[in-house]
């Protein structure tokens, strides 16, 4: 299965008083990975977001297997789990990398719905064609 990879180096801002990465940052990195996927694979969707398209996060989760610390190098690997109607489910794996090895430190999942802003409400819409094509590469 093909994965989209986002490379990240942990900084002090992302750690807590104990020195490990604060749990909420893993979810932030899911969002960052998703954004970079759009930039690299479906840049027109970014324009559509400014014109009323909304990729609404419906659910998000993360299971933590090992701690990360400042200056750890992490690869977040995103794969497509499911496309159903206007919803996209993505899986995330967080890998600490060194010159010698990779260690799986967390796993996540996120579901997003394609919506359109109409006045003060949002309504479901089909997944835009360019996004569908971009996602096909990762099935």
TrEMBL record:
Listed name of the protein: Thioesterase superfamily protein
Entry similarity comment: Belongs to the 4-hydroxybenzoyl-CoA thioesterase family.
Transmembrane annotation, as ranges: none
Gene Ontology molecular function terms on file: fatty acyl-CoA hydrolase activity
Keywords: Hydrolase
Annotated Pfam families: 4HBT_2
Domain of life from the UniProt record: Bacteria
